[in-house]
Write a sequence for this structure.
């Protein structure tokens, strides 16, 4: 079963439906006992880091999430909250990925919104995809490049598009809304 | 590199796609799911659904629409049309839409934009403005472009980011339905007043109108309806033309 961590994040429905299109069912819950039985976990997130972190703390899943042993995929703000800290609302993250989240400066348009090409190394998350595949992004904050960076994008400077550390993965873009490439990425995650 | 987006817009009345010319004389063009899937397969980067039905059942039909579309599509989509409260916006997002378009209600009460952004995040708020050029400059219109206000459009645009909008959809009333090209002058003026991404709308008639608006303004996306619905322009052809002119677009 695929568990989706339920803490009031806004884009959960589109994630559920993306897995449904691939033929998988999901379980949206904040119950640690149930989440522990899942083979894969999705940590969604859109909106403001501060309120997301507060809701996450209220949900009580935070300690469980840090200790999870199954593959975990953070999406967008979910990924950002898995980093050490974010400038958005000066929020402390879970500290899984060894990087900080900063606001885009000196950019022409903010948020960074739309399809951008992603260059990736040999991570299994991007297996079978053509180089420089496009994914859909919507964000005003980004994770700085770090040893955990497995994919990069450019706006106009390079930034982290995906992170990985042991069983933890994070993507800045929205695979659930990134067409065929996004579906492939979700499928790859489930194969981990 | 960030790509310029091409966005077909589907005006929906009680579950059917319609398209108005100059916001009047509405004509029906077909089933929205069928059309939406076609656009996704042809390479549309995003879709906008505008629910123009003015019935008491509106909320229910809109929820059904969002649900069906969210199930089928794997590209982002915005739903707008008559959204007047935070709860309505939340309903749209909870049912699987990526963004919510707010128009008349946000012009009358800009705080609505702030409230939706605080609840659901600025990234999902598309502030959709209908703009008319008058002797006293650009002004906002409401009610689907039928009613002109005294509000200065460019000032409103300059203030949009601090209100909490994540993106602007700017429709030129003078250009809409004319097929004479996007309103380059308006879009340039708007582009220097905000850092928000802008979707150009109103006036697309031929492929060159898209390449022109991408080359001459800073818009990150361009929207059109009837020329796509009538299959006068294929999205694929349009993207090929963009590529030939070094305009970055997404390949499938």
């Amino acid at each position: 079963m695929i568990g989706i961590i339920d803490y009031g994040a806004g884009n959960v429905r589109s994630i559920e439906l993306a897995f449904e299109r691939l033929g998988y069912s999901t379980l949206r819950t904040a119950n640690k006992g149930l989440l522990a039985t899942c083979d894969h976990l999705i940590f969604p997130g859109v909106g403001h880091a501060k309120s997301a972190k507060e809701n996450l703390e209220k949900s009580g899943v935070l300690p469980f999430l840090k200790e999870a042993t199954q593959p975990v995929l953070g999406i967008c703000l979910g990924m950002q909250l898995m980093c050490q800290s974010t400038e958005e609302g000066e929020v402390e993250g879970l500290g899984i990925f060894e990087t900080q989240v900063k606001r885009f400066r000196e950019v022409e348009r903010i948020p960074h919104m739309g399809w951008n090409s992603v260059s990736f190394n040999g991570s299994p998350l991007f297996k079978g995809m053509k180089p420089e595949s496009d994914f859909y992004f919507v964000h005003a904050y980004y994770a700085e490049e770090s040893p955990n960076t497995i994919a990069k994008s450019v706006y106009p400077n390079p930034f982290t598009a995906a992170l990985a550390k042991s069983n933890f993965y994070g993507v800045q873009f929205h695979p659930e809304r990134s067409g065929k490439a996004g579906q492939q990425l979700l499928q790859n995650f489930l194969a981990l | 590199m960030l790509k310029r987006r091409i966005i077909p817009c589907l005006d929906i009345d009680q579950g059917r796609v319609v398209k108005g010319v100059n916001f009047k004389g509405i004509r029906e063009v077909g089933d929205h799911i069928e059309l939406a899937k076609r656009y996704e397969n042809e390479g549309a980067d995003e879709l906008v659904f505008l629910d123009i039905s003015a019935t008491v059942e509106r909320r229910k039909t809109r929820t059904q629409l969002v649900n069906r579309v969210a199930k089928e599509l794997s590209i982002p989509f915005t739903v707008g049309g008559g959204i007047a409260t935070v709860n309505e916006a939340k309903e749209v997002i909870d049912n699987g839409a990526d963004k919510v378009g707010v128009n008349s209600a946000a012009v009358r009460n800009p705080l609505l934009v702030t409230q939706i952004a605080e609840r659901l995040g600025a990234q999902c708020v598309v502030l959709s403005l209908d703009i008319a050029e008058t002797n006293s400059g650009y002004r906002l219109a409401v009610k689907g472009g039928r009613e002109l206000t005294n509000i200065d459009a460019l000032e409103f645009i300059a203030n949009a980011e601090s209100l909490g909008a994540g993106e602007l959809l700017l429709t030129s009333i003078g250009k809409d339905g004319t097929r004479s090209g996007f309103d380059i002058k308006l879009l340039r003026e708007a582009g220097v007043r905000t850092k928000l991404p802008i979707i150009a709308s109103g006036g697309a008639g031929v492929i060159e109108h898209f390449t022109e608006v991408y080359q001459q303004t800073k818009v990150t996306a361009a929207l059109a309806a009837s020329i796509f619905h009538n299959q006068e322009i294929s999205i694929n052809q349009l993207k090929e033309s963009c590529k030939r002119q070094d305009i970055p677009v997404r390949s499938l």
Summary: The interface with chain A takes residues 1-5, 40, 45-46, 70-71, 74-76, 93-98, 118, 120-124, 166-167, 195-198, 218, 220-221, 250-252 of chain B (CB under 8 Å). DSSP finds ten helices and twelve strands in chain B. The CA atoms of residues 18 and 27 of chain B lie 5 Å apart.
